[in-house]
Design goal:
The protein is mainly alpha-helical. The chain is 70% helix and 0% strand. Helix 3 runs antiparallel to helix 4. The two termini are 24 Å apart.
Length: 151
């Protein structure tokens, strides 16, 4: 069931905050909207695992993660962590809903992004490197196995 699956899957469960130093602009309103949509998706996803109507909540969360990710991509907001969190959580949801094709696509995209971040040194590299769960999910998908949680 879903309970067993969540024990082996990393969900990026940190809510996202809008930086207080953003000047008021179209881009800052877009950042705020993307963060709010992500946080709503996360709330639905976490609620799903405590609900009798898991599938309905997971489907809502998936649609919201897709919306947040598309908004982030289309507006070129530039946060690698945001993009990876959306793709990771969408991959986990897809897996739990039995959509293994979408799950594999998400984790393959996550893996390629991780490899890009590893190769390029930049301000977001340290942030991404601190999130071991991204590596765990991407590797378990590529290897076709379940990885053990880090000790």
């Amino acid at each position: 069931g879903i309970e067993e699956e969540t024990a082996n899957d990393f969900i990026y469960s940190a809510g996202l905050c809008v930086p207080s130093f953003l000047p008021l602009s179209r881009k800052s309103r877009t950042v705020f909207s993307a963060c709010a949509i992500f946080n709503l998706a996360l709330a639905y996803q976490l609620k799903a695992y405590d609900s009798k109507d898991k599938k309905r909540y997971l489907k809502k969360a998936a649609r919201l993660y897709e919306l947040a990710h598309n908004l982030h991509r289309d507006e070129e907001l530039g946060s690698v962590l945001f993009a990876m969190a959306c793709v990771n959580n969408l991959g986990v949801i897809s897996k739990h809903l039995g959509d293994l094709n979408t799950s594999k696509l998400c984790f393959a995209h996550l893996l390629s992004t991780l490899m890009f971040v590893l190769i390029h040194d930049g301000p977001q590299r340290d942030i991404i490197m601190g999130v071991d769960g991204f590596f765990m999910n991407a590797a378990s998908c590529e290897l076709g196995t379940k990885t053990a949680p880090a000790a």
